Amino acid sequence: MAHADPSSELATKPLGRLLLRFAIPSIFAQIVNLLYNIVDRIFVGRIPEIGPLALAGLGVAFPIILIISSFSFLAGMGGAPLASIAMGRGDNAKAERILGSACVFLLAMSVVLTVLCFWAMRPMLLMFGASEQTIGYAVDYFSLYLLGTPAVQLSLGLNYYISCQGFAKTSMMTVLIGAALNIILDPIFIYGLDMGCKGAALATICSQAVSAVWIFAFFFGKRTVLHFRRQYLRLDLKELVPVILLGLSPFFVQVTDCIVPLVMNAGMQQYGNDYYVGTMTVMFSIEQLLRLPADGLCQGAVPIMSYNYGAGNYARVRRTFQRLLTVTLTATCSAFLAVILFPGLLARIFTPQEETIQLVSQVMPLFFGGIWAFGAQMACQITFMSLGQARTSLFLALLRKVILLVPLALLLPRITGSVFGIFAAEPIADTLASATTLTLFLRKRKSLLPVSSGETSV
Question: What is the spatial distance between Cα 182 and Cα 199, in angstroms, rounded to a whole number?
């Protein structure tokens, strides 16, 4: 029995239902991914006698692991929109060339990253905060984790090529399978086999390996529209360079997500104290939680906009953007109301300490003062990515954190002489970045999405 091509539905299904169909699996996958990221720390932190030190070792390795995983975005998030645009044009051969080049690039990059990280492991872990007491646990975890880098890169990067074809639920299952297996294997390896930190790392790489096998089984199966072709499994620079250029945007977003906390925590320590550092940790966790709905909606909109842009159906792209902008602004305005009305309740999700809860409740309305506008930045930035606008996407990725947030976080506390200058940097950066992004999109929309005669523009 032949399977229906879900990519054709991207051009025909009602937009509201279609966006919801893609967004719900994406939101669910991101929630599962959050659990994936913390489950190792939950189990390791409860190892008898060494739990706190082992947990600190994992905490040191975690930002480096996030940076390594961000390299998968170069080929995954950079290539999937371009593959979807090609499919919209009816050029599946080009989409398969992109897929083949991305697969080889992910494998090659994983080898390079593994070698470099093994070579610079101890200095790198010490630079990210390891001490003589925790470096051993960090090395135990990180050295074994590195052996699974190929599986991690392939499972993360290639999963975007499943969702770009319209298989949102299959893409979600990739994440779900890995997370569920990790939760099962963690206690077996950590406690049952008494492997400690190495057991946590082994559980993670085994889980990612199974996710990678699941992905390859899909691409060699009958349901997929795009297939691996032997002649396309090579580093085709003609296809790969645009992919990497577009992928630089989410790559730098992820990398700066790891670097910005280091900068802000250093400022909190300099102008405040340990309680302020703890407050930032809670705040970053709350930010991840509050952004989940809007992030999921944006990821769900990518294949719809990319496919229809490739097909020349600009009116449908504009309508998708209008829906997306409305719902992301609704989500971020709702998040703003939540932090104003229930700061203490949100803080209690992440900490039981009353001192930290009181401090978080005091500074949260300031820190999240610009999140209401951030929905506009998210909708416009993902639209530029979906349409293959590499340079604009890269500029916007750097704008909020690198160009605005980091300098403001360094400058404002010096000007004000207060730690609250660091908290104020976030809403200023959010508001300026959102206004700039929306203005840029409105200026470029006519050239990117020309209006046909008899049709009204956005």
Answer: 11
